[in-house]
Amino acid sequence: MIVAMFPGQGAQAVGMGRALAERHEPARRAFEEADDVLGYALSEVCFAGPAERLTATDVCQPALVATSVAAFRVASEAGLRPGLVMGHSLGEYSALVAAGALEYADALRLVAERGAAMRDAGRAAPGAMAALLGVSDDDARALAQEAGEVWPANYNCPGQVVVSGAADGIDRLLALAAERGMRAAPLLVDGAFHSPLMAPAAQRLRPALWSWEPADPAPPFLSTTTCDVERPARMREVLLDQLTSPVRFGDAVHEAFARGAERFVELGHGRVLSGLVKRVRRDARVAQVGEPEDVEALVSA
Fold first, then answer.
1. For residue 299, is pLDDT > 80?
2. Measured between alpha carbons, how far is 41 from 38 in angstroms, rounded to an integer?
3. Is 164 an active-site residue?
4. DSSP the chain
5. Which residue among 89, 164, 195, 245 is the active-site one?
6. Boundaries of every domain in the chain
């Protein structure tokens, strides 16, 4: 079974999707549709920047969804038929589009609102995030609790935990980590994502999410928030909880293997998720589709 997986915020880079759109009609149409739905030239921001505009949370999120959907459409035309879909945080919206549970235009509107809500929540309660490397999940939780106002945000793979919280709390955590010889690095984000500080964003996003009627996903959707295959009745609540709950990507990869995963294909810009899957299981088979040459490799695999 092939698992299609979709990256979240942090995977963006100026130029993403450009070559794919130049070479493949489905990708070009995906970006054109995004421009029409959002009312501005999102494609130009993806293809040419500036970087400051692309990394703004309210722009970055629809940009990543558009790039992932473009890649998925090209891969589908080339014969990709996943048996399961999953995404990292924001990537769950792309996964739901790929599964047919969420219309692409609705996804673009939802993530534009999601990004704006998260941006405003970050401004109202300044927060930060940091990655802890080579640290167990238990030690990461203990360090976050000791620092205060800090919570685990991403359990990405063995030895990589991202924490999130108040700016002062992250400063305290980084100082504690340095004292104890733990590897830690601050992340370039504009809020404490996947923490209780995002509660105002969740409250703002709720009406938009509840205006969506999820369809049955085909293939099934594996949530990296709950690490379970979710049905339509639960999807809105899962996407809402996602804002204040940790991403359990490593556990979700294990669940995908338990359900018969044989190969993971990352759709969109970059190879971050492929690297995490390999950290979860070294023998995992991974591939990416983000550039024209990736499509050729996928077809020949």
1. no
2. 8
3. no
4. -EEEEE--TT---TTTTHHHHHH-HHHHHHHHHHHHHHTS-HHHHHHH--HHHHHSHHHHHHHHHHHHHHHHHHHHHTT---SEEEESTTHHHHHHHHTTSS-HHHHHHHHHHHHHHHHHHHHHS-EEEEEEES--HHHHHHHHHHHSSEEEEEEEETTEEEEEEEHHHHHHHHHHHHHTT-EEEE---SS-TTSGGGHHHHHHHHHHHHT--PPPPSS-BB-TTTSSB--HHHHHHHHHHTTTS-B-HHHHHHHHHHTT--EEEEESS-SHHHHHHHHH-TT--EEEESSHHHHHHHHH-
5. 89
6. 2-123+196-300, 127-186
pLDDT the model gives residue 10: 86
Q: pLDDT tens digit string along 214-237?
A: 999 999 999 999 999 999 999 999
Return the amino acid letter for 8: G
89 is catalytic: yes
For domain 2-123+196-300, the question of CATH label 3.40.366.10 is answered with yes
Choose among 119, 181, 187: nearest CA to 150.
187
Q: What is the pLDDT of residues 109-118, one digit of tens each?
A: 999 999 999 9
Q: Dig out the tokens for 97 from the structure.
A: 């589009």
Does the structural domain 127-186 have CATH classification 3.60.15.10?
A: no
Q: Which of 194, 245, 269, 274 is catalytic?
A: 194
Would the CATH topology of 2-123+196-300 be identical to that of 127-186? no
